[in-house]
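Lecture notes, unit on binding sites. The following record was shown on slide 14. It pairs a sequence with adenosine-3'-5'-diphosphate.
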Amino acid sequence: MVLPRQTCGLFTHTLLLERYPGGRQRLDRSIQGGELFQTVINNPINVFMTHMSNYGNDRLALYTFESVVKFLRCWTNVRLASAPPLALAEKYFQLRPDELNPLWGNPCDDIRHRRIWSKSKWCDTLPKILVIGPQKTGSTALYTFLAMHPTLVPNLPSPTTYEELQFFNNNNYLKGLDWYLNFFPPSQSNNTQITFEKSATYFDGDLVPRRAHALLPNAKIIAILISPSKRAYSWYQHIRSHGDPVANNYTFHTVITANDSSPKPLRDFRNRCLNPGKYSHYLERWLTEYNAHQVHILDGSLLRTEPATAMNTLQKFLKIPHLDYNKLLKYDAKKGFFCQAVSGEKTKCLGKSKGRIYPPMEDRSAKFLRRYYSTHNTALSKLLVRLGRPVPQWLKEELTTNG
Ligand code: A3P
């Protein structure tokens, strides 16, 4: 928690009244109805940092605050009270619960902040591209393809969450900017390179768009979309293979058709499974923070079947030198996906957890989900038209099947 402080016009260089810029008159004006008076009267809680009396035993801070209190008592009905700092802090956050969590900005954006930012720290390597997911749309494939580009440098891997840092959407955010920056060391990239990060849980994280924008206002945002029904099914299979008890106790159909009288763990699981597929809802939230021209909506089906075509459009959006992915990716019949072409006929595919083999979705589940996502899909198609973006084939198909 970070408590904001007010400024009172006294600084290290204004410890002596006789040296106060503008003289005593100026300080008195601030006290008697001027800036300091206004600050105190307009803020329900005021936190000031004053200097202790100095070696010359100047009492400027005491004079200033005693005077402003006297003035307020004399000329207003404001009731002043004081409390120990911790109690004040608690009161402050009761009044301003929205400020409980800090919001990190870029320390290098403001020249005054940059001046006091430690020489041993940096901020130039903060990512300029964020791949936000959602989960199970091909985000790891995209991450791998981007990392193959000589202009792009991913974050260092995290020991706990592998390639995903999941900074903006969970408690890692509270570890602060240093924690995040350490995954983007200056030594890892040169001046012409661009750093990027991918965390597929960013897409639907409540606080993520606001937090991301506060730190990375100029970043380019990439969302990947596939059929929301397929995404939900892939997510269920993914979680099930990790031994999740809910996924193992309930069939996919039971999960998606859970209702308000279902046990809470099942309802929660259903929400986690289905909510990220309400694409337009989450995209609109991103678009309240970022300009539409900063946001690329990538067709995840195209990335899967024609990755080079999808990567061409993406490279144009990112304004990076063109790399021919036709030469770098090769279809691997055994895996059933495009993989990195290595020497000769060899390929390097994503691990077993990507492109899993599982039975096809039951017809009744597919039918249920088509109806479930129908309004969301319509809203997505309207959103894409509004933004002048192509409507992907999978979305056209889902909308016609509904009709
Ligand atoms: P399945 O494992 O259900 O088939 P994410 O990386 O966001 O978790 O997405 C995983 C999904 O990416 C996989 O889901 C798979 O269908 C899809 N995908 C797209 N291109 C792929 C590729 N080249 N290799 C492996 N999986 C790919």
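Take-home: The mean pLDDT is 92.
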